[in-house]
UniProtKB/TrEMBL annotation:
One of its GO terms (molecular function) is 2-alkenal reductase [NAD(P)H] activity. Residues 100-395 form the Enoyl reductase (ER) domain. InterPro entries: ADH-like_C, ADH_N_2, ER, GroES-like_sf, MDR_fam, NAD(P)-bd_dom_sf. This is Enoyl reductase (ER) domain-containing protein. It comes from Salvia splendens (Scarlet sage). Keywords: Oxidoreductase. PANTHER family: PROSTAGLANDIN REDUCTASE, PROSTAGLANDIN REDUCTASE 1. It comes from the Eukaryota.
Length: 400
């Protein structure tokens, strides 16, 4: 009964993964203070077997794909996508020099993908093509390569198709997975684009200093949870907002935020921010936009910094809302700066140098929301826009 319910996505399950046998005592003790979020598991070792037998190389096999049915106008629904099974040959076709053929293991669900489902003009990223598989960030294993920098058997993360196998003709957006001690799925999140986004927005744009006050919206999500923990490592006072009591508890108990509140229970965002920041906000990490941004502008301090990472409250609207209170930028000399993470990947090695030891020493952690099977991908992606995800939304296509 239960296997069927899981496969049909009628029940789901959140795991709290502690890495390495060294983390086992802490993980066990955490059960008694409620530090765990969901089932507490300790990973002692991960099987590293290649489940695709050599005999399959070169064969034509089935390839399940997530297809965009048609352009989306406002919000996205599961029915805007469908699952199709096509065929793929497990070998790079002749004439495809510089390509790699990969088996996709984990896919990352990211809010920006909604923009790509729309018919875009003059946007920083291209629209998906209707009736074709969509693409995004993922973690993959190289099955065949005609590119001098990539070898069969290597693990990579970066841009790939939402399908079981992808022929990537331009692998320039792939990064190698170097540290195999950490869970591979982390390369969809804390060790990949998401972690980089938190790092660049907070450290490069806002330069946090000890004792400063930091506010993070959508704080329990993929980017937000990392921003808050990074800000704590910099000695800041950190407050986050999120959309449920469960998420607020997570922020305080798991991620070490000083305070957190459920924005859905607040009638007046201005009053809520005054309560948590009586002397004002030095740094705002903007993930949501709209009315929250308006309230934040009124509560910023002199020489405050705002990293404009995302505005998820606006993505599904036909007409984006107007933002009031912008004159605070002048009177308080606030620097408000938007960024696109794709412009900053040259900082990836510097980022890894900082983040890997922090994870290994248990100084920062991350919570993932794992959806099993490519069939669950459309629902997982759509769930971002109603806050169904708890932490980084990942889809497991295959475990190596
Ligand atoms: N600039 C860049 O290069 C870049 C890169 C990555 C991500 N981003 C942006 O960063 C933000 C966070 O992305 P993520 O990957 O970390 O996603 P996420 O936070 O893991 O998931 C999205 C969360 O947003 C919240 N949300 C959804 N609709 C909302 C609404 N109408 N008002 C307020 N909150 C809403 C929900 O949490 P609650 O339950 O708390 O409402 C939901 O769980 C997004 O705006 C995204 O576009 C930007």
């Amino acid at each position: 009964m239960v296997v069927l319910l899981i496969k049909e996505e009628k029940i789901t399950y959140v795991e709290d993964i502690a890495q390495g046998i060294e983390s086992a005592p802490g993980a066990l003790v955490g059960l008694f203070s409620g530090r765990n979020v969901g089932k507490q598991v300790v990973v002692v070792a991960r099987e590293n077997t290649h489940t695709l037998k050599q005999s399959k190389m070169g064969e034509e096999i089935n390839n399940k794909q997530v297809i965009l049915n048609n352009y989306v106008k406002t919000s996205v629904k599961e029915s805007d996508m469908s699952l199709r099974t096509s065929k793929i040959q497990l070998k790079i076709p002749s004439g495809c020099d510089g390509a790699v053929l990969v088996k996709n293991l984990y896919l990352s669900c990211d809010p920006y993908m909604l923009s790509r489902m729309k018919k875009l003009e003059g946007h920083y990223t291209a629209s998906f093509t209707p009736d074709s598989p969509i693409s995004g960030y993922g973690v993959s294993k190289i099955l065949d390569s005609s590119h001098p920098n990539f070898k069969t058997g290597e693990l990579v993360w970066g841009s790939t198709g939402w399908e079981e196998y992808s022929l990537i003709k331009d692998p320039s957006l792939l990064f190698k997975v170097h540290d195999k001690d950490l869970p591979l799925s982390y390369y969809t999140g804390i060790l990949g684009m998401t972690g980089m986004t938190a790092y660049v927005g907070l450290f490069e744009l806002c330069s946090p200093k000890k004792g400063e006050t930091v506010y993070v919206s959508a704080a329990s999500g993929a980017v937000g949870q990392i921003v808050g923990q990074f800000a704590k490592t910099a000695g800041c006072y950190v407050v986050g907002s999120a959309g449920s009591k469960e998420k607020v508890d997570l922020l305080k108990k798991k991620f070490g935020f000083d305070e957190a509140f459920n924005y859905k229970e607040e009638q007046d965002y201005n009053a809520a921010l005054k309560r948590y920041f009586p002397d004002g906000i030095d740094i705002y990490f903007e993930n949501v936009g709209g009315k929250m941004l308006e309230a934040v502008l009124n509560n910023m301090r002199l020489h405050g910094r705002i990293a404009v990472c995302g505005m998820i409250s606006q993505y599904s609207l036909e007409q984006p809302e107007c933002v009031h209170n912008l004159s605070n930028l002048i009177t308080k000399r606030i620097r408000m700066e938007g960024f696109i993470i794709g412009d900053h990947y040259h900082l990836y090695p510097k980022f890894l140098e900082m983040v890997v030891p922090l994870i290994k020493e248990g100084k920062i952690t991350c919570v993932e929301d794992i959806a099993e099977g490519i069939e669950s991908a459309p629902g997982a992606l759509v769930g971002l826009f109603s806050g169904r995800n708890v932490g980084k939304q990942v889809v497991v296509v295959a475990r190596e």
